[in-house]
Amino acid sequence: MALREIITLPDKRLRLVSEPVTKFDKDLRRLIEEMFETMYEAPGIGLAAIQVGVPARVVTMDLAKKDEPKDPQVYINPELVWASDQKATYEEGCLSIPEYYEQVERPVSVKVKYLDRDGKPQEIEAGGLLATCLQHEIDHTNGVLFIDHISKLKRERVIKKYKKAAKRGGDHAPAARVEPSSRGL
Questions:
Q1: Which of the chain's ends, N or C, has fewer CB atoms near its CB within 10 Å?
Q2: 116-152: b or e for each residue (b if 16 or more CB lie within 10 Å)?
Q3: Separation CA 141–CA 79 (nearest Å)
Q4: Which residues pair with 46 in a beta bridge?
């Protein structure tokens, strides 16, 4: 397998709406394996295919802590079918917006329909970190970034920093604060 490049802000591909997966073949299996390899190397806990430049509705995730065995999860064509009225705020980060973290409010619980690796329909009810990650990654498949959930002023500042860094030829803008123990979604 091979590592894939994670595209970062201000790359316009991050705003693309991904296409549903219709073929469950060796190409899809290879994409999933390469997404996991890339996500683990980053290191991150979630990755949408669009983040590696593939506009397909594929999400990989692993919420296991560093001292726990890996728990790889795949969500193909994930769709949010229900969200609780109750909200919670979590600090989110993103592999496509390196070293930037911000408080984001989202529903506490969600229900998601998706297809597994074999194309079989599944449904999951999730709360806590899993609910947050699912919402974050499903947003990616719809061309939405976590910074779209923060104030316009903060969002504009972040985008401006990353655009400046891109013009300078840097990989990404300097972080507002760096938390080495955090792993991006």
A1: N
A2: eeeeeeeeeebeeebbbbbbbbbbbbebbbbbebbee
A3: 10
A4: 61
Q: Return the C-alpha torsion angle 67, 113, 17, 54, nearest 10.
A: 50
Q: What is the CATH number of domain 12-168?
A: 3.90.45.10
Q: Does residue 137 have an active-site annotation?
A: yes
Catalytic residue among 34, 99, 102, 137: 137
Please check whether residue 102 is in contact with residue 147, taking contact to mean a CB–CB distance below 8 angstroms.
yes
Return the higher-pLDDT residue of 109 and 177: 109
Predicted model pTM: 0.90
For residue 57 the two structure tokens come to 């509705």
